[in-house]
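TOPIC: backbone geometry
CONTENTS: sequence, C-alpha cells:
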Amino acid sequence: MFYTCGPNEAMVVSGFCRSPPLMIAGGRVFIIPCVQQIQRISLNTLTLNVKSDKVYTRHGVPISVTGIAQMKIQGQNKQMLAAACQMFMGKSESEIAQIALETLEGHQRAIIAHLTVEEIYKDRKKFSEQVFKVASSDLVNMGISVVSYTLKDVHDDQDYLHSLGKGRTAQVQKDARIGEAENKRDAVIREAHAMQEKISAQYKNEIDMAKAQRDYELKKAAYDIEVNTKRAESEMAYQLQVAKTKQCIESEKMQVQVVERAQQIMLQEQEITRKEKELEAKVKKPAEAERLKLIMEAEAEAESIRVKGEAEAFAVEAKGRAEAEQMAKKAEAFKEYKEGAMVDMLLEKLPLMAEEISRPLCEAKKVTMVSSGGGDVGVAKLSGEVLDIMTQLPEALEKLTGVNISQVASHTG
C-alpha cells in the first residue's frame, strides 16, 4: 500500500526490512501491511512567545522580557530529523512547542542575568543575537532549528526604565532645543551663505560675461587679423603670380632675343668665315707663298754661308795643320842640325831685317859726316832714332826668328 505526505510533514517507516527505520520528508512510500508500520511527524514552523517575568539583571534590577521565536524540525537534515523523531515521535505540535518554549525561556533568563538593564534596553539587537546563538546550539541536538528570535518587550515594576526614559527624554528635549537653535543658526548661516553665494554668483556671472566679452573681442580681433592676413597673403600671392607671369614673359622674350642674337652671331661668324676664306684666297696664300720663298732663300743663303764657313774653317784648319807640321819639321830640323838650321833661318829673315833697318834711314832727314883729321871720312853720326834702332836690332831679330843672336854669333865666329 502506498502512503504520501506533503512537504510540511515527514513519514517514518519501521518494521520488516526497515532497520533502521526509513524517514521520508515530503514524498511517498510503499508499506507492507501487518509487517510494517508508518508514523508521521510535523515539520511546520512553530511560533513561540518566550516570556520571562521579573528576572534580575546583573545589577539586581528585576525586569520582564518578552521575545518571539520561530522554529521548526529540520526535515532536510537526516541526522536532525532522526534526532527529532527519537525525541518527539508520537507527540503533538503543542507538546513539541512547549518543550522548545521552556528551553528558550531558560536560555533567555540566563542571558538577562548576565546583562544590565541599559545593555538590554539600548542594544536589543545584541541581546537577540546572544539568545539566538545559545538557543540554537542547544535545540539543534533535539533536531529543532531556530529560524529567528526577536526581543518584543522589556518592562519593569520599579519605574527604572521610566526614570531612564525621563533622563533620556530630558536629554532629547535638550538636544531638541539645541538642535532647534543650531538649526536656526545654520539657517541664518545658510541664508547668509546663500546670499553670499548669490552675490558671488552674480559677480562671477558678470565676470564671466566680461571674460566672455573679452574673449569674444580677442577672438574677433584674432579672426580679423587672420582674415586680413589671408587677404593680404592672397593679394601678395596674386601680385607675386602677376610678377612671375611677367617675369616668365620677359624670360621668354629674352630667350627669343637670345635665339635671334645667336642666329645673328652665327650668320656673322659665317660671314667672317667666308671673308677670311676669301682673304686667304686673295691675300694670305700669295703672302704665305712669298713668305715661304723668302724663308727658303734665307735658309739657302744661310746654308751657303754655313758651307762657306765650314770650308774656310776647314781651310784654316788645314793651313794650321800644315803650318804645325812645318813647325814640327823645323823643330825637328833645328833639333837635328842645330847651328846650321839657325843660320839658315837667320839668312831667310835677313830681307825682313833689312826692310826694318832701312825704314828709319828712309825717314832720316840729314846725315852728318865727321872727319878724323887725316883726310878720311870718319863714322857718320846718325840721328838718335837710328842709333836706337841699331841697338834694338838684335832683339828684333830674336823676336822674328826665335833664335838667340849672341849664341849664333859665338858659334859662327
About this structure: Residues 42 and 254 are 125 Å apart (CA to CA).
